[in-house]
Amino acid sequence: MVAIFLNDVSVNIPIFDVSRASLKKALIGRTIGGRFAQSGSHLTVSAIKNINFEAHDGDRIALVGDNGSGKSTLLRVLSKVYPPTSGTVNIIGNVSPMFDATLGMSMDATGLENIQIAGTIWGMTRAQIKNSVDDIVDFTELGDYLKVPVRTYSSGMMMRLAFAIATVRDPEILLIDEIIGVGDMGFFEKAFLRLRKLIERSRILMVAAHDDDILRRLCDKAIWLSHGSIIDFDDIDTVLAARQHDAPAREAAAS
Amino acid sequence: MHMNVQDITSERALPPSKTMLIPPSANMAQSSAQMTYTVGSTISDEVLAGFREWRIWTILGWDDIRQRYRRSVIGPFWITLSMGIFILLLGVIYSRLFHTDIRTYIPFLAAGFTVWGFISQTMNESCMAFNEGSRIIKQIKLPYSIYVLRVMWRNFIVFLHTVVIFIPVAIIFKVMPNLATLYVLPGLFLVCVNLIWVATVLAILSTRFRDMPPIVATVVQITMFATPIMYPVSSLAGASIIAEINPIYHLIELVRAPMLGTAPELRSWLIAGGLAVVGSLLATALLVSKARRIVFWV
After folding, report:
1. Residue B194, CB half-sphere, CA atoms under 13 Å: how many?
2. Strand A173-177 and strand A95-98: pairing?
3. ipTM score for this prediction
4. Contacting residues of A for B14, CB less than 8 Å apart
5. Which residues of B are less than 8 Å from A106 in CB distance?
6. What residues of B are in contact with residue A97 (Cβ under 8 Å)?
7. Whether residue B13 has pLDDT greater than 60
8. Strands A35-39 and A3-15
9. pLDDT category, B79, cuts 50, 70, 90?
10. What is the pLDDT of residue B84?
């Protein structure tokens, strides 16, 4: 069984950079994104607040919300990067986060060496890396470039390689933060297909993104976050429609 | 995340009475989520698991070395070369200064200084262990000990590149290996165990308090002069107590003495061993108590 249970989960992130009293007051007065609060001797930002939800086998959940609404924080709680400040997190199954595909890429190592380094950091065994090298090489279409340091790559080539390495795994619970474009348009469809296959291999998907069309193609449910709280958790069309409906009101409130 | 030194100092300068009234983040410590994080599971997840994940810290450590010397013709052997020149020059000058025989002084300096280099550089670099791993720390959950072991491994590789300088020195000055030379292995092991706990403590403190790295650098530099590394302990004459109470001296002796063909003294073993046990417990306790905070500090 694979499942996620979050019960009343909150995360307060301490901020150490800001400690001058005047700046503190200035920030506490603002309510963009998360809410600032004073906790003990230093400032904290309440990134997510009293989150409750369950996800089960087969769920494909989109996380939508404005910048700073808590999408990334929630994903970091699920990936165990952030321990919750309060509440309980119960996750059954292996969590496989993919927040920044270029994680573990070393500029001075060659493409092939990077497959070893990044693959190891992503948690692949030696045998898994060995078995997937051909697949990665084929997908990137980089040929002999894989024998030279990544430093010489264009950003598009670099993304291809990083994306290819990050998408070979067999995830149980797949967490994706932002789906970024991979190179030119022709390559994008190829990358999207690969991403789709990765998602099909996963049992639960949670993905944060700003592109509603892409999210509709990948997900059937959606969680709408605002200021660190869940506004709505329903099937994706309902949530996106509700959010669309709310947009003029939000713009009015902002101006 | 960029950290402003002035902010940190002013934060720490808050009067203690204020923090007494409102214990900092007391609400964070008493959550129900805490129940699932027992001391036992934290030790297993954050400390022991890191040793099992040796593939990660060895590949990261190697990559660090590679990045430093990529495109250089002789690569990490620059370390060997610079250490060789340093020892030769210092050996000629200091043997006159201390009126000692150059034939015993250069092997003594070569053995002691390479071990000291390993200890001092690991201590300095361990301050940045979590900061240099911050990209990984913020994205995937790995045991925190991985980042400390990566620094250890990288510096152990550097140590191996410097210690080779002792081989020609031993041949030229006829330092014959004997049975006592074998003590080098347990000696080096105890040095490593002690370095791991010191590095863990320094990594945690430096991540939270950004004034730590320069403090550590200063202490390390002073320690070099206060420890018999460039001068023999005998030259301290009546003041040899300065060396005896210095644990770094005993750690160096555990490796240096066997390299020079003599067995280390029993009390050096006892001090280094006792320190390893007490220090490891201390470092583990500190890591367990701060494991849930480090990600917010990097």
Report:
1. 24
2. parallel
3. 0.86
4. 41
5. 63, 66-67
6. 139-140
7. no
8. unpaired
9. confident
10. 94
Which of these ranges, A179-183, A193-197, B33-37, has the smallest mean pLDDT? B33-37
Phi, psi of B165 (to 5 degrees): -60, -25
Q: Could you give the CA distance from residue B247 to residue B17 in angstroms, rounded to a whole number?
A: 36
Find residues 134-173 of chain A whose CB sits inside 8 Å of chain B: 149
Q: Is the pLDDT of residue B164 over 60?
A: yes
Q: Enter the tokens of residue A53.
A: 């939800």
Percent of chain A topping pLDDT 90: 69
Whether residue B95 contacts residue B101, with contact meaning beta carbons closer than 8 Å, is answered with yes
- List the structure tokens of A39: 């906790």
Report d(CA A74, CA B104) in Å as an integer.
64
Secondary structure of residue B298 in the 3-state scheme: coil
Closest CA to B57 of B147, B138, B130, B141: B147
CA A196 remoteness from chain centre: 15
Q: In terms of pTM, does the model score above 0.90?
A: no
What order do you get walking across the sheet with A42-56 strand by strand? Answer: A35-39, A42-56, A3-15, A86-92
Q: What whole-number distance in Å separates Cα of residue A68 and Cα of residue A74? A: 11
Q: Which among A85, A117, A123 has the least Cβ separation from residue B63?
A: A117
* Bridging pattern class, strands A60-64 and A42-56: unpaired
User: What are the structure tokens assigned to A67, written together?
Assistant: 């910048």
Chosen for mutation from B14, B21, B22, B28 (greatest number of chain A CBs closer than 10 Å) is B28
Contact call for A84 and B24, based on CB within 8 A: no
Report the residue from B22, B27, B139 with minimal CB separation from A100.
B139
State the pLDDT at residue B111: 97
Superfamily (CATH H level) for A3-97+211-254: P-loop containing nucleotide triphosphate hydrolases (3.40.50.300)
Alpha carbon of A20 to those of A17, A138, B4, B79, B116: distances in Å? Answer: 9, 54, 11, 45, 41
End-to-end CA distance of chain B: 7
- Burial class of residue B245 (count of CB atoms within 10 Å of its CB; 0-12, 13-18, 19+): exposed
Per DSSP, what are the bridge partners of residue A37? A44
DSSP sequence for A50-78: EEEEEEETT-EEEEE-STTSSHHHHHHHH
Q: Which two tokens stand for residue A10?
A: 């909150």
Dihedral angle over CA of B142, B156, A104, A169, nearest 10: -60
What distances in angstroms separate CA B250 from CA B83, B220, B253, B282, one per listed residue? 22, 16, 5, 20
User: Cβ separation of B14 and A14 shorter than 8 Å?
Assistant: no
**What are the structural domain ranges in chain A?**
3-97+211-254, 102-166
Nearest CB to A97; choose among B2, B22, B139: B139
Closest CA to A12 of B284, B144, B33: B33
Q: Tell me the CA distances in angstroms from A126 to A105, A116, B58, one per residue in order.
A: 17, 8, 13
